[in-house]
Structure formats: C-alpha cells, structure tokens
Amino acid sequence: MLARVQSYVLHGIDALPVEVEIDCDIRNSETKSMVVGLPDLAVKESIERVKSALANSGFTFPGGRVLINLAPAEVKKEGPLYDLPIAVGLLLAQGVLSPVRVRKDLERAMSPAATASPGHAAKGAGAGPTNGADRSGPNGSGAGSGLRDEGLDVRDLVFAGELALDGRLRPVKGVIAMAAMAKARGARGVVVPKENAAEAAVVVGIEAIGVSTLAEVVGLLTGHLEAQPHAPVDVVGLLRTAEAPIDFADVRGQEAVKRALVVAAAGGHNIIMLGPAGTGKTMMARALAGILPALTPDEALEVTRIYSAAGAMPSGDQQRGLVTTRPVRSPHHTASGPAIVGGGAVPRPGEISLAHHGVLFLDELPEFPRDVLETLRQPLEERSVTIARSHSAVKFPANFMLVAAMNPTPKGDMPADEVGRRAMDRYLAKISGPLIDRIDIHVEAPAVPFRQLSGAPKGTSSAQMRDMVSKARARQIARRVSGGLPNARLTGKMLDQLAPFSTDAHQMLAQAMGELGLSARAYDKIRRVARTIADLDGSEAIEAAHVAEAVSYRLLDRKV
C-alpha cells in the first residue's frame, strides 16, 4: 500500500516541493516505523505525534512495517510541519481516504459502479454523513472550490501542519512561501492550520484552506465537510491603514536630531546618534519607521516571507496574514554574530534580514563585540547576506537602514575635562573606522533643557516629517538615471551625473576633505547626503549650504 502527499521544505525564505511517500507492508511481521530523507529529530519524532493524533481522532496506525520517505532525499528536512501530510498519507495507504478524483462531467460517461468512491469516512472522524447537497463550483463542474462529490482531491493540494496528541493542528513556519510554491506548481490549494490560513491567502490565485483538527481534514477529503477557503487578503487596504506606534511630536526638544533623521529617511541613509543617557535616542530610533514611505505590496510580501520563515510573525500580523509596517529590530548588545547576520545548521535569517525594508537599531553601539560589528560591513554594501554551509548556501535579503546610538563614555555622560575627553576617545575607538565610514550621518543628541522637558510638546510631528520625506523620495524616483534608487545607494558614476555642485559648494567640499582627512568613501557619503538635502529643499543643484550641512553630519570622522 503506497501513498503520496505533497508538502514543502524551506530553503532560506523560499519553499521547495517535498513529496511525502508512505509505504505500508502489513504482511510483514516486523512492527517498525521509520522516516528517511534527511529528517531532523523533530521530523523523526513526528511518528509518535501522528500515532497519538490518529488514535485520538478515531483512526488507527497501520501495523507491520511502515516506511516514510521525504523526497528529495538530499535536502535536509526540519520541524514538525510534516505531521499532517504523514497522517494524511497513512490514511490514504489504509484506504480511509481516496486519491481518485471523480468529477460531475465524467460521471455521465461512466457507469455507477465505476464512479463509486473507494474511500469512506472513518468512525470517529468528527464529520456527519453527506446530505446529497451539490458541492460543485460556481460553474457547476466541481472545479470552482476544489470539491467533488467525494471531497477534495489530495493530488491538487499541498499539506503542512503540526499535530497535537489529541489531533488539533498547530501553526508552522513558511506558509506564505509554501502557498507561492503551490501556485507556481499549479496546485489548487493548500491545507494548513487555521492560524496560518490568512498568511497563505495573501498569495493571489491559490485557495487557502484553514483547518483546526485532523478529523476536519478527513471530513474535507471524504466530502462530509465543505471546504471554505480563507477570503483573499486585501494587501493594499491593510498597508493603507497601517499606523506607526510612536509620533515624533511626543519627543521633547531634539529638533536638530529630528532634522538629521528626516535627511536619513529621505535618502535611506545610515545614521548614528551620539549623546548622554536619557536624551531620547532610543525613542527617536523607534519612531523613525513611521516617517519612512509606506511598504509597497511587493515589499510587504517579501518582509512577510522573511518573518514567516523565521517563525517570528507578530501576533497581530499573523492574524492579518501580512507584515504591514516597516520592521524595527533592536537586538541586545550581547547578541552573537549568527543571531545578527543569520546562521545555524539549517540557515535561518538573522536580525539584519528581519530588518529588511526597515530599521536595524543598535543601541549602545560600542558595547557590541567588535567581531559582530565587523560582520555588518559587507551586508551594508551588498544589501544581502549569504550563509554558506557544506551542503548548500542560502542568500537572505538585508536591505535595511542602520540606526545606531551610543553614549559618549561608558558612564553615559558628556565629558567636561581632559580626563573625560580621553575616556571618550577610548570608548569611540571600539568602533572601527571602516564601519564609521559606512554610516552616512553622525549627529549629536544633547541633553534636553528643563524648560523643554516641563513644557508641552511643540516639536515637529511624524506627519510633517513624513510629508517632507515623501516629497524628497518622489524627486529621487523621478530621476530615470538612478532607476528610482534612494540617494544612499547611488554609485559614484550616478553621483557625477545627478549631484552637480555649484562653484562655492565644490570649494567647500574640497576644504572639508583636506582639513578633516576624510576617506574616499566618506567623500561619496557627503555627496549622497548633500544630494538628499538638496532634494528636501527642492533644488536640482547642490549649493554650499547643502554641503555645509552634510559635512556637519561627519561628526565622528573628527574623533575616530
């Protein structure tokens, strides 16, 4: 007795097809169950979960020798997502379920004996008898909802889900990638835990059937229950109504820092804030995502795939099936290199990928281990990271804005004497020059005077800042030469064409390069930031005032 059920395996943030093959030899006196195909421990343990789930749902586990193969065999399989396809395969192998499709248009050409269903609903399946209702699709052919008189066709579906011992289904990772793979392979739908149904329904053109128990799956496959796919998710509508949790209007003072953050958001520039403890650096970093342009549908889908693959979907976003706001990730300074960049025996996305299309906030930057910070240098340039293993290499997207904050000294205060300045220099020396070069904007966040703290907030709001950012981004998108890239990603050749300097601006830049001893990378950073400042002013040419402001944002070049 052989059965086949379709499932998937995650490779990075993409899904690859996996065929779950079940071979039951009940004539064999040896009672043994085995899973092959490079399974990890969680997959091997699925046998015990499936046994209990079948028994507690009113079914039996086949006797004799049971071999379960997860093909292709050379790809490592992990996690409990194969519980449901294994259980369905075992029921197929025993004849409880039928893999044969019988459609209404074929029934008329076949005899009643030939069209009889070999499958039957098991006792205790939790589904009532059929009432003879017509379950055909809108066109009357039975193809509209994937239903036939005998239920859903297993061959048209992809299955995934973790089974509890009582037969309930628990959510799994990577369902949005699974749905995209199923659509690409021509499947009619996916059968997933109910908590994952909204996520699968984000993919247009695939039926996302959410189920709560194994008995419910059997009812759908035998025709005792009618499938009710999850309604398609309104991606555009969800993105339009997304709101940022923090408003810059709540930040007291710090208007100069807010200006720097507007420049950073307008051009997609990395930024570091330097100032004593308690000046609002963390609050402003978390509010930054609220002034960035809203996620586009393609960006939202890509971010959702990353979070789904990592099993890190926030509860609210999981209910909606979509990440609707730009992510803000804030790892602790004790985080390891693999936690930041990604890694593991089976590579998983790290914090830099979870911050894709959003913000990676590193608070207390000098407290991070130097080797961890150095791993950021390549992703900051390439906007992606490749995790290589002996059996494969996985590429994760990592197009994020780096926002860092630090105190001037380990004590957190601003030095007032020579001893304090030497302590500040030693503290800043923990950050390498090449990393500082990759941060476009350095700005000081001074202590806020008492009168500003005690008075009512009067600062610039997120709505005002977002309006400025949107207008500057629109100018960047309109430039055909740049291909719509934000200014932070313009190459030197693009800058030569898109960043024309006035005579005064050119002289000021030359003077700053000589006096500050800036590197070639810093030279391009200044040009990019000056281009953004000019865009905020609505100017095509870069003037001396734009260069002066851009140079003022290279604060740490004078200290490191």
**Shape verdict:** elongated
Assembly state here?
single chain
Major sheet attributes: 5 strands, parallel
| CA radius of gyration | 29 Å
Number of helices: 25
Walk across the major sheet and give the strand order: 11-14-17-10-18
Q: What share of residues are in beta strands? A: 15-25%
Number of strands: 18
**Mean pLDDT score, rounded?**
85
What report would you give on this structure?
The chain has 560 residues and is of the alpha/beta class. 38% of the residues lie in helices and 15% in strands. The chain has 25 helices and 18 strands. The strands form 6 sheets. It has a 5-stranded parallel β-sheet with strand order 11-14-17-10-18. A 4-stranded mixed β-sheet has the order 1-2-4-3. Strands 5-8-9 form a 3-stranded parallel β-sheet, with helices on both faces. A hairpin with a 4-residue loop joins strand 12 and strand 13 (348-349). The longest helix has 18 residues, at 520-537. The protein is elongated. It starts with a strand and ends in an 8-residue tail after the last helix. The relative contact order is 0.09.
